[in-house]
Design goal:
Number of helices: 11
Structural class: alpha+beta
Number of domains: 1
Distance between the termini: 37 Å
């Protein structure tokens, strides 16, 4: 069965479980967003300030003028290959996000402000490398939902979790698992769900990425304990269909804090 058809069928068959676990708040019939996930590999020193200023003064304002957002911008606190910034841009289509940099180059206001970053030389580069992936929101969580504290720039932290699978079929089963009750179990545990995306392009395919938000690390640990102890989670994770070793081959778990310019 073709990959997207399989996912649609999986979501349909799991609708009852989804509703039963409180995930109706996700509005699974809403139009699904696409995401551009950018990773900036940086070096400690001037690159950090230069890239953050670029995001704050040039990139995010220009993306907002295009009618896209809210844009999340984060620095990695715990994870491999630091320092690094991550940026998540919601958009209406793959083409809008795939052509984002070309569109930015036509924005005169952006070009003026972005000069220090875009015109950086090999002697003083703005970054080491930039990786970009495109994702499609899960049908059961079709829109980004920033925590309420984002609006007031309140205290918050984030987890960005990527699950790689050994095959497309096993990847689809992991996606199906979320639609079979995992959203609702997260909500019952008090976790703030930000976004869930199925990778369309990028490294280490097939994979999915999702983001959770917490007030601080103590709350994060406590709510994960509640999640793991939930009887519904124990039942779901014990299902032979969703055997962990079969459907997930690697997990990348990053703990991040928002940059001052982040809208998430």
């Amino acid at each position: 069965m073709e990959r997207r058809q399989f996912l649609a069928a999986s979501v349909a068959t799991s609708a009852v479980a989804l509703m039963g676990n409180g995930a109706a708040q996700a509005q699974p019939t809403a139009e699904r967003e696409y995401y551009q996930l950018r990773r900036y590999h940086l070096r400690t020193g001037p690159q950090l300030k230069l890239t953050e200023s670029y995001l704050s003064d040039a990139f995010i304002p220009a993306v907002k003028r295009m009618g896209m957002g809210p844009v999340g911008a984060f620095k990695v606190d715990f994870g491999p290959e630091t320092p690094a910034y991550y940026v998540i841009v919601p958009g209406p289509s793959v083409s809008a996000l795939a052509e984002l940099d070309m569109t930015l180059g036509k924005d005169e206001d952006f070009v003026k402000v972005a000069v220090p970053y875009w015109n950086a030389t090999a002697a003083a580069p703005a970054f080491e490398r930039v990786e970009i992936a495109l994702l499609k929101a899960f049908q059961g969580w079709p829109k980004m939902t920033p925590p309420a504290s984002s609006a007031t720039k309140g205290k918050r932290m984030f987890q960005l979790r990527t699950y790689e699978s050994p095959s497309n079929s096993e990847h689809e089963r992991k996606v199906e698992m979320f639609h079979s009750g995992e959203f609702g179990i997260f909500q019952k545990a008090g976790c703030q769900l930000v976004f869930f995306g199925d990778a369309l392009t990028g490294p280490r395919l097939p994979n999915l990425t999702y983001m959770l938000s917490f007030a601080d690390s103590a709350e994060m640990d406590a709510k994960w304990d509640v999640f793991r102890a939930d009887p519904d989670w124990k039942k779901l994770s014990a299902s032979p269909r969703f055997a962990y070793d079969a459907i997930v081959s690697n997990i990348t778990n990053l703990t991040m804090s928002p940059l001052g310019c982040s809208e998430v």
